[in-house]
Write a structure and sequence with these properties.
By secondary structure, this protein is mostly helical. 71% of the residues lie in helices and 3% in strands. The protein has a two-stranded antiparallel ribbon with strand order 1-2.
Length: 158
């Protein structure tokens, strides 16, 4: 008796409907894709209007933010910590791969490889990737918080 009803439907039923979940999935993908576009624009802006260490390390953080946004597009239901962890793991793996020289060889043959893989290992980049992952995780947590009126499902609500 304690549940609110709207048009004869409980709040729990409204929040758990499959069509509502599908819309939430598409909304999450759209937000993540928009975040990816904004991240690329921010990166281009940093490159255009800044230089030196600020531009380099902002670019590192934004690289990881972009990877996190792409993870969120591919897995819109993933928890923010998983999105951030996947982005950080990928970024660190690429940076550590630079120790092998393979990315440097690939970078000589194409701009895309240079943009995605870089060419030279730089230990401080590992820190700035973590900064980017933390920022992306915080934004993902805000973007995926439950809508007003829809309490998160707990074991007690099932």
């Amino acid at each position: 008796m304690g549940e609110e009803t709207v048009a004869g439907e409980s709040r729990t039923a409204r929040c758990a409907r499959p069509d509502r979940r599908a819309r939430a999935t598409w909304r999450a993908r759209a937000v993540a894709a928009g975040g990816a576009v904004l991240t690329v624009l921010a990166g281009l802006g940093v490159r255009a209007f800044a230089d030196g260490d600020f531009a380099k390390y902002a670019g590192d953080a934004l690289y990881t933010v972009l990877i996190c946004a792409l993870v969120a597009v591919l897995a819109p239901g993933a928890r923010p910590v998983v999105v951030a962890g996947a982005g950080l793991a990928f970024s660190w793996a690429v940076e550590l791969l630079q120790l092998t020289g393979i990315p440097a060889d690939l970078a000589r043959h194409g701009a895309v490889a240079r943009l995605v893989l870089g060419s030279t290992f730089n230990a401080p980049d590992l820190f700035w990737y973590a900064v980017g992952a933390g920022l992306a995780g915080a934004v993902a947590a805000l973007a995926t918080s439950p809508s007003p009126g829809c309490a998160p499902r707990t074991s007690a609500s099932r």
